[in-house]
Amino acid sequence: SQLEAAAGEPTISGSLRQAIHAAPVPLPVLASRAGVSTARLGDFLRGEEGLSSDEIDKLATLLGCELVQVK
To answer: Which of 22, 31, 32, 54 is an S-S bond match for 38, by CB 3.0 to 4.6 Å?
Structure first.
């Protein structure tokens, strides 16, 4: 499916999508806490729309994600 394909991307966005899918809170609650509309977050999850760096930062913080450099 489109959701699985987008979440499987070997990118930072793909990793964020995986974390959103695994989140223990409903999507509308997560979107609200991040200051993003549920529709916009859904578009991001399907790979139809990107998010701003501020939105990514908010979501990553809420989900406990961090960027780790791999050598």
So the answer is: 31
Tokens 């989900």 label which residue?
Answer: 63
Q: What is the pTM assigned to this prediction?
A: 0.82
What integer pLDDT is reported at residue 68 of this predicted model? Answer: 80
Contacts 24+ apart (CB under 8 A), 11-17: 12/56, 12/67, 13/44, 13/47, 13/50, 13/51, 13/56, 15/65, 16/56, 16/59, 16/60, 16/63, 16/65, 17/44, 17/45, 17/47
Rounded to the nearest angstrom, the gap between the alpha carbon of residue 65 and the centroid of all alpha carbons in its chain is 10
